[in-house]
Amino acid sequence: MADASQSVKARFITFEGGEGVGKSTQAKRLQARLHKQGIEAIRTREPGGTPKAEAIRSFILQGRSESWGAGAEAVLFAAARLDHVNQLIAPNLDAGKWVISDRFHDSTRAYQGLTGGVDAKLIGALEELALNGHKPDLTLVLDMDPEIAFARVRERQLEDALVDTGDRFEKENLEWHRKLREGFLEIARNNRERCVVVLADRTEDKLEEAIWQAVLEHFPELETAPTA
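and the corresponding structure tokens:
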């Protein structure tokens, strides 16, 4: 594989959006696309990415923190993010590798802040602590009618036999998902220099191409990077 590490700066890209919009699939596809360009990229997720953060992920998504309230969950997510940044994201960026994360700090803003009602000052303070200066260079917000995305989630649960054990956020009602969507769109409107909204109601191949074009527009140096 051609080495583009000397000509292309390491970048941090995050995928955001509601449940069922295709973030995980497209994060994997983007990693493969970058690999073809000679770019070494690692793929991770939030909450998670490190053993400690994965343990927190399991605790939250099983619903064990739900009774504590959105504020306590925001603190847990921040703790997981701090470890994720310090142990995985920052070291890989420092080593010249691109990092792609399925969710990051905008999910806390949307889920616990704009949807859960946690005070913006608390969200901001936790964000400053956890990010430690490592904001994403590009955030791709995958947007879809929540009714369509909601149906996708239900279909996935049936396929995986998880009807009774889907994570606590997937179990929320349609109105909650609509509010969540608006939360992500508001974040994108307020961070236009970093966020790109990509319509996700299309085939996986077409969505991949739309995402790649957004990445090229944000990082034009990729156009001249050697290919694998």
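(Above: one complete record from the training split.) The chain has one domain: 12-223.
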